[in-house]
Amino acid sequence: MGSSDFSWKLPDHPKLPKGKTVAVVVLDGWGEANPDEYNCIHVAQTPTMDSLKKGAPEKWRLVRAHGKAVGLPTEDDMGNSEVGHNALGAGRIFAQGAKLVDLALASGKIYEGEGFKYIKESFDQGTLHLIGLLSDGGVHSRLDQLQLLLKGCSENGAKRIRVHILTDGRDVLDGSSVGFVETLENDLAQLRAKGVDAQIASGGGRMNVTMDRYENDWGVVKRGWDAQVLGEAPHKFRSALEAVKKLREEPKANDQYLPPFVIVDESGKAVGPIVDGDAVVTFNFRADRMVMIAKALEYQDFDKFDRVRVPKIRYAGMLQYDGELKLPNHYLVSPPEIERTSGEYLVHNGVRTFACSETVKFGHVTFFWNGNRSGYFNPSMEEYVEIPSDSGITFNVQPKMKALEIAEKTRDAILSRKFDQVRVNLPNGDMVGHTGDIEATVVACKAADEAVKMILDAIEQVGGIYVVTADHGNAEDMVKRNKSGQPLLDKDGKIQILTSHTLQPVPIAIGGPGLASGVRFRKDVPDGGLANVAATVMNLHGFEAPSDYETTLIEVVDN
């Protein structure tokens, strides 16, 4: 720690007792939305969560779980499990995603990091390939970040650069691709004037090439692989500007769905296939549409499509796209370094801690909760239990997942009276919600609700306190909607399923026999978010939170 007078000791809360068992339950992908047939939480039988909402109004409220509340750049950024658990555990808001990349580029720190040093080893003999969305939309990537990266890489020894562009038209206006290509071509021409062999090598529309998500259609990734790695595509052009202009002339063409193309030299040979010894960077900062290409670039064992040729490359993401899968293994910008998390404080103040989930979210309730830090703070005070997730199936096949097992382990931990805090993540709403299977997601929500009941019953038995909340939305809205909120239909008149997270707020409920009378949610923190939960939990353990934490959500009124 910086200053020598730092102390881990937390001040006692003036009105709340110590020594109560506190259960912190995180329902993954469980937001609050209007009740309709596409709100699986509403459709499902969820008597426990319903009773928390209908109980005492001063013990239930909504908190923000997306955008700036979790450190993401804009209010259009959906929350996710990594940033959500960071905020829940850290009690403060840290820059995430695009903001983190901006800071690393502005300071030049990106070029000193492990990830950059790793890809730099290919600059001498090989080509640097940059793959990503060419857009200033700011949702998945930003043109100005690509421009800075090109400049920085060339100043740091990249002699041969190939850019593989994906046109947008979804987060920006359709047709804007032409201007973005002109801007990029201008920058590359300036690099060539300085002796760097830099050009665009391939391209295609984001919904047709590379940027699929949630394993919806591996054909999208394969089309990208064929163009970027193999240098093969149905359309060949001498320049990217010509490619985009010509392909946009086709009937019904738009930026999102442009077919894959490769740029060729005068002899018809692709100018930039990816070969042994090359470096590859995927420059999108948003994870969901980079995970699949990252798997194709990184995994030795891969069976989703025939890669034909698998070059030996050095691959890094702009960020790590999946903290659970540690994918990719190398990345240019590290997650925020978060010190003094609530978990570390509480352990230092005698709070014995139990944490549990199944494999897919175990890291969230430990590693991400603890500020992107592995392991225990104090092994004699903590126990973390991971229940193996089902593997080899999609989660809609077994939508109950391991909710019952997680609840049983947690119940036993509570009843053992060995722990002062038990915290758990119930993944069902999120993992099954991502499959887009509405019936299965309804089953998933019911299973999560039953798990909550088992945990709350145990808290009742030991005279404890519960805090039930979520990390972001998903299961509460399973359909894509137009601006006025009506479900969107596809060309066959079927509803368009929404498999992603949402922008919805999430519930937080407090209660239990150990909750002191007079404790209620304050009215003066209307914009409270996930980062306010840590101070709240510290209070329930009988402590005041550190002064730089986001403020508590609760107050104690004298009855």
TrEMBL record:
Mn(2+) 2 binds at residues 28, 81, 471-472. The active site is at residue 81. Belongs to the BPG-independent phosphoglycerate mutase family. One of its GO terms (biological process) is glucose catabolic process. Pfam families: iPGM_N, Metalloenzyme. Its cofactor is Mn(2+). Pathway: Carbohydrate degradation; glycolysis; pyruvate from D-glyceraldehyde 3-phosphate: step 3/5. It is an enzyme of class 5 (isomerase). Keywords: Cytoplasm, Glycolysis, Isomerase, Manganese, Metal-binding. One of its GO terms (molecular function) is phosphoglycerate mutase activity. One of its GO terms (cellular component) is cytoplasm. Substrate binds at residues 140, 170-171, 206, 213, 286-289, 361. Its main location: cytoplasm. This is phosphoglycerate mutase (2,3-diphosphoglycerate-independent).
